Amino acid sequence: MLRKPGTTPGITTPAALKAFRQHGPETLSDLQFLENWTTRPRYTAASVLRAGQIRRTNPDLMHDITTSIRQRGK
């Protein structure tokens, strides 16, 4: 699949893109997870623990992603 240069598949919010550029491709799955969690949370034990751990270590990132997704939905 072709994609625009400078874009990342599965990441849509500016905050997640910024974090991806700063920290590299090893953060891709966590960033995709946060965006999905914000729009459609799944309350399994594993997903709740993962979201909580990421949220505790990066509260500003979680806030920025949540804000971006809510603004996009308006």
Determine the mean pLDDT.
87
Beta strand count = 0
Order of helices and strands: HHHH
Shape: globular
Description:
This protein is mainly α and 74 residues long. It has a domain at 27-73. Helix content is 68%, strand content 0%. It has helices spanning 14-23, 28-39, 45-57, 59-73. The mean pLDDT is 87.
What is shown here, in short?
This protein is mostly helical. It is 68% helix and 0% strand.
Layout: helices, strands, pairs:
Blueprint lengths: L13 H10 L4 H12 L5 H13 L1 H15 L1
Keywords:
74 residues; mainly alpha; globular
